[in-house]
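Recap quiz, item 2
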Amino acid sequence: MENFTPVSALIGGVLIGAAATFMLWANGRIAGISGILGGILFPVKSEIVWRILFIAGLLSASLAYMFFSGASLDISVQTTPLLTAVAGLLVGFGTRMGSGCTSGHGICGIARISKRSFLATVVFIGAGVVSVFLLRHILGLGL
Amino acid sequence: MSILRSTLAKCTVFLSGLLFGLGLIVSGMINPAKVIGFLDVTDNWDPSLLLVMLGALAVTTPAFRFILKREQPLFESKFYLPSRTDIDGKLVGGAALFGIGWGMAGFCPGPALTAITTLNSSVVIFVAAMIVGMLLHRVVVE
């Protein structure tokens, strides 16, 4: 477990929780990223501006971080472009079909004590574990 | 809503997104290698992602309970909450497909969108494919 970073993980988690809380308190919306993005792709007129603003906030976070730290983000993708594209398709399709992703189900839904979100979170983490195990340790693909 | 109020409301949405993005960066979840390190339970397991979720839930669980007792949010006339409570195949199947894709590249929607400003080619490919996946779902299912 030498890669374990408990302090930054907890601080980052608290920031994410604070952001979702601020969103619900001020605007009454769930900070679920796949839902917010999905709503931009199929816009309803009164429901588009806030979605764009939220995503602009996300992008500004990384721009500000890179500007003030003077370095790019540490992003290491250990897979092929083809697998990355397939992964993107599955994540896009799956999050729409399952009504949410890590943020909407895992952070906001569980906080609302939603049975659906509990189940979805257990399933996507379980599927992720199986997926990594098969790709890395059975097929030995690119990692 | 007055112009001042609606401008303030828009600022709070932007700030929520900003804070959310910073949380993803600080937590390390922006880096797919870190996510894979969590999902790979058999090889040098990195439990960081678990602490990210627990840290977030330690805030949202009590705070949501408190906020949802209020009649309405600060800038809107009602809370916009999912109303469904039933478990169906779409929920489970969708979560499974998402999980498989998450494990393949280590990206979920929030970190991938936040990281697109790096113009890293993997991130761009992932986000483009994710949008296609969402459109595909619309065409095939809805």
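The helical segments of chain A are 6-27, 33-41, 49-69, 81-97, 102-111, 115-138.
Residues 76-143 of chain A form one domain.
End of item.
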